[in-house]
Amino acid sequence: MKLNIDEPAPVIEWNNTNDPRHSITIKNLLQQTSGLNFEENYYSKSDVTQMLFYTSDMAAFAASHPLKNKPYSECYYNTGKNNDSSVRRFLNVPTDMFYASGFDGQAIYIISSKKLVVVRLGLTKLPEGEYGANEFLKTINNLIK
Q: Which InterPro entries match (predicted)?
């Protein structure tokens, strides 16, 4: 499936054209300009701590938040927007590489902070048009074992 970053993001919860979040594009998610009302605060039980440590479906949790501002009106980094844009299953990665307070098998790839890993990545497109995410994640998994 080929995606156009300027079209509405393919988030199931936002499919209804009457939903104000329907206008959020993939570009908005990548640029942190979606306008979603999602609090990034690690000092209390906030949206991000709720999502990362108490929720079994992080993508659905992040997608459930309403708009706070019109898309493109502000740039505000938060983990929820990243999770909305990264819902994809990586078939060749062990399920224990997906983490949310013991909930294995997430659709979002998260390198657990318990493994203390920092990843720096530059991807190049392969001839088949894919970015080799499965191979990359297998490599990371082998490095942190």
A: Beta-lactam/transpept-like (IPR012338)
